[in-house]
Automatic annotation (TrEMBL):
Signal peptide start and end residues: 1-44
Pfam family, one: Plug
Alphabetized SUPFAM superfamilies for the sequence: Porins
Protein name listed in UniProt: Catecholate siderophore receptor
Family to which this protein belongs: Belongs to the TonB-dependent receptor family.
Keyword rRNA processing: no
Keywords: Cell outer membrane, Ion transport, Iron, Iron transport, Membrane, Receptor, Signal, TonB box, Transmembrane, Transmembrane beta strand, Transport
Stretches assigned to the TonB-dependent receptor plug domain: 88-186
Residue ranges of domain TonB-dependent receptor-like beta-barrel in the record: 287-749
A single BP term in Gene Ontology: siderophore transport
Membrane topology value: Multi-pass membrane protein
Amino acid sequence: MTTITAQPGSTFIKSKKHARPSAPALSAPALAVLASLAMPMAYAAGAADAAPELAEGAQLPKVVINAGPDRAVQGPVRSASDKFTAPLLDTPKSVTVVTSETISQTGAVSLTDALRTVPGITIGASEGGNPVGDNLFIRGYNAQTDTYIDGIRDSGSQSREIFAIEQIEVVKGPNSALGGRSSAGGGINIVTKTARDTNFSNATAGLGTDKYARVTTDINRVIGENTAFRLNTMVHNNDVAGRDVVGGERWGIAPSITFGLNRPTSAILSYYHLKSSEIPDTGIPFNNPITTGANVAKNGGGTPFTVDREAFYGLKNRDFRDTQTDVATVDLRHEFSPNLAIRNATRWGKTGQDYIYTQPDDSKGNSVLYGTVWRRANTRVVDTRTLANSTSLSGNWNTAGIKHSFNVGVEFSREDTDRGSFVFSPGTNNPLTGTFTCPTAGAATLYNCTTLVNPNPNDPWVTTRSQSPTLTTVETRTRAVYGFDTIEFTPQWLLNIGARWDDFSSTLVTPAVGSVATVRARVESKFDTYQAGLVYKPKANGSIYVSWATSATPPGNDGGDGLDALTVAIQNLQPQTSRSIELGTKWEVLPGGRLSASAAVFKSDMDNARVTAPDGSTQNVGRKELEGVEFGLSGRITNAWTVFGGYTYLHGVIADNGFVNTGTATAPRWTASPFNGNAFPTTPKHSASLWSTYALNKAFTFGAGANFVDRQFANVNNTKYSPSYTRFDAMASYTLNPSVSFQLNIQNLTDKLYFDRVSSPHYAGVGAGRSASLMANLKF
């Protein structure tokens, strides 16, 4: 089956390839990886990547929402994170665990693909200050920097792959007690594949529409009495269905070796490398509303323009995105006794990307007034280096008849980011106006202006580019100590508590260039965060809980490579703090607990959100409020019928957005923001997903799924939005013999035109059209 990979770090690619050929050739390293796979039936989809069909009586490792059925392990289902000191069934938090089986069945090949099955998560669009990558929103809050690899923060903007990851754990609600600085919405922990104590060889090879080609391998070998080696590789190429020009290629390799398998002392050494080259997508500009002035008759409706789905406003010979990730991890563990263990993990990572992508910008109303679009060139040259170390002690003890399950630890991390950009000569403004106003389009504008209808991505790029001499360096340091304890008073009553103290500092320096002075900013922030939850178990297979948790987001939370960047204006602000209360229940139902069900209601508040104060400065005086409901269902209804689904309702309100100047610059008059009471951007009120498979017999399995996402606003004004949509997918698999199976996936079965990425006020990202892929899963 397919699995999830993450990119804990990434190197900066020096290559400046701008255009991708219409039938892109794979790079030499990628071809080398592909050549290594050309062995007759040597690998297959078994072990961790078994075919999705079930043999009669076989136990399916289940996708688990909020502590679902057994995951092919003995005992209650637990998180892969040591910080969860109780089985997920008894953890007073909303946690969704997505295993490799569901990822494979749905045909996902990226983190954002896999998270499509989890309601309550949406994808944001990139913009000038918001880099291209996994821009995730959880429960309405930006969680761009809240991704963890095996419990350690994964810094640097990137687009994560799937090929070397075992499962994804989505923790919803304030996450700071678990991970430190974070948003109020939650976090994502990606669990990697490591060497096991069983020999297996798996491979998948697939072809599909839109130049889709993908090969993966997963080989594990026991090479000594207590030592094993595992190697995962991947080569991938495809265009985006329904989008002109957009697409790319990538390849990756992830070896790991484990010493001391099944021994009290063990060491896991792993390395991860991913490299990609693509032409990135943007989308279609919003039909901007005009509410005043002489052009009010041309008022737009606020949705994306109705143009050809293929409309691509970029320049094929200019736009590019190159990324590279390199990560090395040493994970040491020692068990002093069955009730006490210590873990120390050290990780070095380098994450980098450079790109030029065209944003269809309508800041001057070009599309409504003239039927044109300004080709705004968003650029980035970034390199993030990370060194992190985490040490934790976990165990169990009894005192006075009360059971404790605990985890305490310390964490240290260092993140260094160098961020630059590209400059163009003679520039990207319209030379006829000297601005980005575009009354006309074409050669006279140096093709910086194009038509709203039928833009030509093959327009010649007539300017030159070079890297800007301005380079911003951001150094971020974190020290933290934390502790968690699940206290079992009786088999029916448990108390889960946790606390964390963080010492966060970040320094930004932009050296002087020409007449521009040196810019310096520094933030030093110490903050405490907490979580507590009371669990009542009316029966062994169920729990009812109430929980409370806090979160803190200091200025410069992104470490220099994201939307929440450190600036002089915010360096003296306090962290944005949030709190949440949740009431929920989790049940394992049907014989053997093979089906899990969950429900939760929650409310969160951010009391000191950053807004504009009456003097025009940025201050912690705003407030956001969110209420919601979640339902989840996963597991096996019968031996042949599996289901994985959920529903989320979110009502997010900007309760206080500060003040606006309704006077003049010389005689300001500050009044309450007119946006008070507006809905959160990038937060659908309703979202739901359902994926189900049915095995007709030992050979044939069929599956289908649906995803519904409600309207999403792209701005705090609530004047621009993407419409609601429902997308349908389907799957069929056939097992030829124990060593060979085939799987057909059809994505977006009805070829629905929908928009799946918002947050930029200028455009909405277009969802992929209908596509199909056929995979051969091989086992040897």
